[in-house]
Amino acid sequence: MRRGVHHVRPKEILTAVALTATLAVSGCSTPDSTTDTTVADRPDSIVSLSPSATETLFAVGAGDQVVGVDSQSDYPENAPRTELSAYTPSLEAIVEYEPDLVIASDDIGGLVAALGAADVPVLLLPAATSIDDAYSQIEQVADAAGHPEEGETLVGDMRSRVDAAVAGVPAREATYFHELDSMLYTVASASFIGQIYGLFGLTSIADGAGSDYPQMSDEGVVAADPDFVFLADSQCCGVTVESVSDRPGWNTTTAVREGQVVVVDEDVSSRWGPRIADQVESVAAILEQN
To answer: pLDDT tens, 220-271?
Structure first.
């Protein structure tokens, strides 16, 4: 097994994959509400503890309502990034922003109940498990922020771009290894990331490993002989096409021999927000060149 610096960014994916892709709203004034807490039609003070939700808020025109985002929310650049942690959330730190809506991707440490007790509504959106689920979550974020029409327009544009990108590249039967980090964590075809590759007929070599996000070994990857290797750990961990070729046995794989080891943007490829269409178009461009 290779050793290296663990990739931090996929943690938004890796810490949430065990959660069901259901929408839970705590403290919102709805027919199913269990508290008296209400959310304004257009909340003025939103805190986002999810990079995907942060991107969505700005994409639907709610950026000026966002008063703080977690430390991993690095896009867009003008998002009010803070030291707030989505993985070890501090109730005290969050309420200092006086939010009238908090959006999170995980209920770590009973965050939802704690914020509910403080009369702060929470929109809990676990990791998307499909592209359609991602579309639904984008619309839910837009609705909660008071921008329903903008959400519908954004999703419609994304669907059109995705359909056009897929239609422009003939489907092929090929295998891939999508490297999440330098510890060789990867994705199976059933994962959210894997389903994007599946649009083009690609299949993960990690299928059958018993997890949507399994860890593989050098020997396992070499034996599976992927046609493509997608590196989503170049930014975080300094992994390069050249360093992959130097790994024991990897120079015998089809991906290395045919020059089909490709660096992909680690954030765009792992987040379930508005840039899904960018990722689909990126994959289409890679396949057109190979």
So the answer is: 999 999 999 999 999 888 999 999 999 999 999 999 999 999 999 999 999 9
d(CA 179, CA 264): 10
Q: Looking at the chain, which runs of residues are DSSP E strands?
A: 24-26, 46-49, 66-69, 101-104, 122-124, 174-179, 202-204, 228-231, 261-263
Task: Give the integer Cα–Cα distance in Å for 169 and 179.
Answer: 23
Cα separation, 38 vs 57, in Å, equals 19
Q: Would strands 24-26 and 122-124 be described as parallel, antiparallel, or unpaired?
A: antiparallel
Residue 53 to residues 10, 120, 181, Cα–Cα distance (Å): 15, 17, 23
Q: Which of 209, 189, 48 is nearest to 130 (CA)?
A: 189
- State the CB neighbour count (10 A cutoff) for residue 201: 14
